[in-house]
Give the backbone structure.
Amino acid sequence: MLEILKIKEEMLEKVASLYNKVWSVRGTSFLERLQKHMNYEGFTGFVIVSEDGDVIGYSYGYTSLPEQYYHGLLSNEFNSEDYQKWLTDCFEFVELAVHPGYRKQGHANQLITKLLDGVGHKTAILTTQQNNFSARKLYESLHWVLYKETFYPGDKSNPFVIMVKKLR
């Protein structure tokens, strides 16, 4: 039986290992970023753990604040009225991954729903690769709305989209 648990310090290496597997990445940069993000205001995250104790999925995010790097990138994409509407009381949905062997079973939906349940913010924001159509379809099915079709948080050859959601 699978179990959804809050992310704890002792799980971080397993979460990072899953990230590296899903995104075909090597190294420790994600682990370091996750450890840093755990100290951000409003951090919350969940994992789905198999009967064997393996992390087969995770999601996490935190309060989006002006002093944060990614918040700064996002804020450049909003006019002042939209900034007030979407980014002033906002939960930033940062990461989601499910092991390839466990996809198409509703786990991503469960992780997103659990993550956003009770975060206490007015809105939520996420970015995903522009060509990640399965993720975009999932988010749209959960009532996320496309805010911007083309957003470059880094490499100009890898466009992202910005999606937003009202939470209350």
About this structure: The first strand starts at residue 3 and ends at 6. The CA atoms of residues 20 and 26 lie 6 Å apart. The mean pLDDT is 96. Helices lie at 12-22, 29-37, 69-75, 80-87, 107-116, 133-141.
